[in-house]
Write a structure and sequence with these properties.
The chain has 500 residues and is an alpha+beta fold. The protein contains 16 helices and 17 strands.
């Protein structure tokens, strides 16, 4: 079997390094050098993608990688079977909305008289699809999978919120009843963007359906002690016939169990409450509510980035925000993130480098003298400035700045005050080419730094060790990201008394 191109390049570089250093090089040294080369290739391609170049490499590489990683024969069999269903059996391919994630199945619809059935066939094109298929090769796992899928619609509490599964195939595919309705993510976008609701859709009934679902989820957790299932709103359909919300991702009941945030009641409730609030604001038609909806739309656009820190799957993106007194939940809880930081922000000048949509500064706006946020992504800066205008926080300013491409000395020119009291560098270093220079520069313009490490354990250890060379006092605030339901393994540090 032919190995991927990047792996061949990495192996070649590793072999050349071994030969240049003689036979005394050991396996660990070779493995380390291969890892460095592979990471440099990945970083180069990622940088080119962010600049709009070599975009064709990403889908091509994923295709090549998956061909080698997953079973080509089984993939071909499933593709031919799906083509047979659509071409000869006259199944209708199910068209999913732009917000709907489909990482596991080919999906088609079969009509039988007055009813329709959904047929799902694993495509094996992603690690999610392949891992499910591979796991179900174990007979015990497959029996459990069948039991869960075939019985969930009979559950006295959550059963009404799942389609009925008729049969399960050995590769994990299954057939279930078809739900006629509208995806909740599409309803959210309609309400947020000011488009007319479909004639058959009553927003008030959707909100009633949300309340019913939340009550049942809470009842299920009370009775069982935990939740299961995959509950992002793009998996939820408002059934216009039953006037009820249905989770069409039945296999998620088997795949996702708490502590996955997809099965976390707090996350589910935040997303559904967010949707209710958007519908209510849309119905009110007040100028203030319509302005808030415009800002929410701008933040949503900023989350449509192919990066892990976009916060796309969360109701309000990466940062929780307060807009005209209304609270909207994001991935990171800014107030909680600062709760244990022993620093007096009153009347201080704060510089946030890598600010995203500015959530950290927005939550401090009523305490600080001035705040300046910098980020390389223009969508985030546009959203941050809209939030500033909406809330009237005129002591904040946000600018586009690329730490990897522009001279660092220009950063000081964005701060009109005589000094910077404290800088923020939060969960950013692993995304920077020369993070050491950034830390050194921030230490040269401010005596204080609030720093959050990110990356794997080795990367975080290196980052903290370097910070300790730039500041005489480095205090750990928290060893984990207590405010983040997704990624918790990041240390937060308050650094004082710069010595650069």
């Amino acid at each position: 079997m032919q190995m991927p191109t990047s792996t061949r390049l990495a192996l070649f570089a590793g072999i050349m390094s071994l030969e240049s250093k003689g036979s005394s090089s050991n396996w660990k040294g070779w493995e380390y050098r291969v890892g460095i080369v592979k990471q440099k290739v990945k970083d180069f391609v990622r940088q080119q993608n962010e600049e709009g170049r070599l975009l064709w490499v990403r889908p091509f590489w994923r295709f090549v990688r998956n061909v080698h990683r997953f079973s080509p024969c089984k993939k071909l069999v499933n593709l031919l079977y799906y083509s047979y269903l659509v071409g000869l059996r006259k199944h209708r391919p199910l068209r999913l909305g732009v917000n709907v994630k489909n990482g596991i199945f080919y999906i088609s619809v079969r009509s039988e008289g007055n009813r329709s059935l959904v047929v799902k066939v694993p495509h094996l094109n992603t690690r999610y699809s392949w891992s499910l298929y591979k796991k179900l090769r174990d007979p015990a796992a497959f029996r459990e999978y069948c039991s869960v899928l075939l019985s969930i619609s009979n559950d006295p509490i959550l059963g009404p919120h799942f389609p009925h599964v008729q049969n399960v195939r050995r590769d994990g595919g299954y057939t279930s009843s078809y739900v006629t309705g509208h995806n909740l993510s599409e309803i959210r976008d309609i309400a947020r963007d000011g488009r007319p609701f479909p004639d058959e859709l009553d927003p008030a009934e959707v909100m009633t359906g949300i309340d019913e679902l939340l009550d049942r989820l809470k009842a299920f957790q009370r009775e069982n002690g935990t939740l299961c299932g995959d509950w992002p709103i793009y998996n939820l359909i408002y059934d216009i016939r039953k006037k009820r919300i249905i989770n069409v991702d039945v296999e998620g009941v088997y795949t996702y169990q708490y502590p996955h945030f997809e099965a976390d009641l707090a996350y589910i409730e935040a997303a559904l409450t967010h949707l209710k609030l958007i519908i209510e604001m849309r119905k009110s038609q007040s100028p203030e509510d319509l302005s808030v909806l415009k800002v929410i739309g701008a933040v949503a656009y900023a989350t449509q980035l192919d990066v892990s820190y976009s916060g796309e799957i969360h109701p309000m993106g990466y940062h929780s925000l307060v807009l005209r007194g209304r609270y909207f939940r994001g991935q990171r809880e800014c107030i909680q993130r600062l709760a244990d930081v022993r620093y007096d922000f009153k009347n201080k000048v704060v510089l946030d480098v890598g600010c995203n949509c500015g959530g950290m500064l927005h939550c401090l706006a009523d305490r600080i003298r001035a705040g300046v946020g910098l980020d390389s992504e223009r969508r985030c800066i546009n959203a941050a400035n809209l939030i500033k205008s909406l809330n009237g926080t005129h002591n904040l300013d946000f600018f586009t700045f690329d730490l990897d491409k522009e001279p660092l000395y220009l950063i000081a020119k964005f701060v009109l005050h005589e000094r910077v009291d404290i800088c923020f560098l939060l969960s950013l270093c692993m995304w920077l080419e020369d993070w050491r220079s950034v830390i050194s520069y921030l230490a040269s313009i401010s005596q204080n730094l609030l720093f959050e490490a990110n990356g794997d354990a080795k990367q975080q250890s290196e980052q903290v060790a370097f910070v300790q060379t730039c500041f005489r006092q480095v205090h750990m605030v928290n060893s984990k990201s207590l405010d983040d339901p997704v990624r918790k393994s990041r240390g937060l540090y308050l650094c004082e008394d710069a010595q650069v």
